[in-house]
Amino acid sequence: MSSQQIPEENLPVEQGTAHGAVEGAGDPFANPGLPAHRPRIQDIDERAARRSERAVAFMFTLSMLATIGFIASYVIFPVDRIVYIWPFGHVSALNFSLGLTLGLALFLIGAGAVHWARTLMSDVEVADDRHAIEAEPEVKAKVMADFAAGAAESAIGRRKLIRNTMFGALALVPLSGVVLLRDLGPLPEKKLRSTLWAKGKQLVNMNTMEPLRPEDVVVGSLTFAMPEGLEEDAHDFQTQIAKAALMIIRIEPDNIKDKREREWAHEGIVAFSKICTHVGCPISLYEQQTHHVLCPCHQSTFDLSDGARVIFGPAGHALPQLRIGVNSEGNLEALGDFEEPVGPAFWERG
Question: Would you call 176 helix, strand, or coil by DSSP?
Fold first, then answer.
């Protein structure tokens, strides 16, 4: 039942009024206003303000030192150094120092800014009316005036020590991001330019772990080999085999098109790196009729009868060939190392 259906004599009547009329209707909640401003010690004592200024500058200065420590950590700590730090246990010295210094650098900038705002910037509360989203010219002028007033109240022009140390801290922190680019990987230096292959190193079948003999390799077959002396349980086995793995293929000498490939072979037995020159995937797909090998990752195709040149796919250059021969025991052996780095190109490669 609506109020229109209720008899007028049954409607509630406020005391002191006739026929339910409300006198002096308005906002039932009075505006409490802003609390009285209580000045801080820094507002009335310049010595206290100076102490706060020095505290803020001290935090910004520590932030600069922490950023410098972040950069220095790359030089001081090797990537494989492990240290014991209570209560974390055994951790990487490099990772721990990078996290600690960068965390301190960012925290001290934030702590300095908070302490600056709480002790030196103006804390007078100002009430402002809402305005339309589209600013009027007068509003724009007021915003600029407020900005200028805020800059004046922050004392950034008068507190030169804070201003200069803050600019120094903010200028150094981005250097951490630049240094992070260095963490894309260790510099290869000369580690990628050589492998375990050397003159006299026998070719070992990776399936039987026995030295390979010419009669073990038949025409059309594909065999994988590694240098003698490399053990699968060695701590650096994966690192070394990623550079030294070989493909051994026997091709009729008349079918070998490349002159140098024929000279570096032994009775049609050729040895090429198994590592694709695109992104370093292991090559394992061989087509004996065409003498083509295919990388399963991105379909780079190499012609093993023509110097292992690239005939399809994203690989940038041919597979390196290893010069081989036969030793006095009748086993296949290397006559030296690869003459060029194996695998994909790298930025230090000349």
Answer: helix
Contact by Cβ (8 Å): 319, 277: yes
Please identify which residue in the block is written with the tokens 């950023």: 67
The DSSP result for 55-119, as a single string, is HHHHHHHHHHHHHHHHHHHHHHS-TT-EEEETTTEEEEHHHHHHHHHHHHHHHHHHHHHHHHHHH
- Percentage of the chain lying above the pLDDT 90 cut: 60
Return the structure tokens found at 58: 């001290």
Which helix (H) or strand (E) element contains residue 164? helix 160-172
Concatenate the DSSP letters of all residues of 21-37 into one string. PPSS---SS----PPPP
DSSP-assigned letter for residue 309: E
pLDDT at 200: 93
Three-class secondary structure of residue 140 per DSSP: helix
* Cα–Cα distance measured from residue 26 to residue 23, given in angstroms and rounded to the nearest whole number: 9
93-119 and 46-76 helices cross at what angle (nearest 10)?
Answer: 160
Q: How far is Cα 315 from Cα 310, in angstroms, rounded to an integer?
A: 7
Residue 233: pLDDT over 90? no
User: What's the token pair of residue 157?
Assistant: 């022009």
Q: Which residue has the tokens 């609390």?
A: 35
Contact 294, 282 (CB under 8 A): no
Q: Which two tokens stand for residue 138?
A: 């007068």
Distances (CA, A) of 32 to 24, 134, 240: 19, 30, 78
**Helix or strand run (H / E) with residue 302:** strand 301-303
Residue 276 burial by CB count (10 A; 0-12/13-18/19+): exposed, middle or buried? buried
Q: Dig out the tokens for 22 from the structure.
A: 């409300």
Q: Greater confidence, 330 or 126?
A: 330
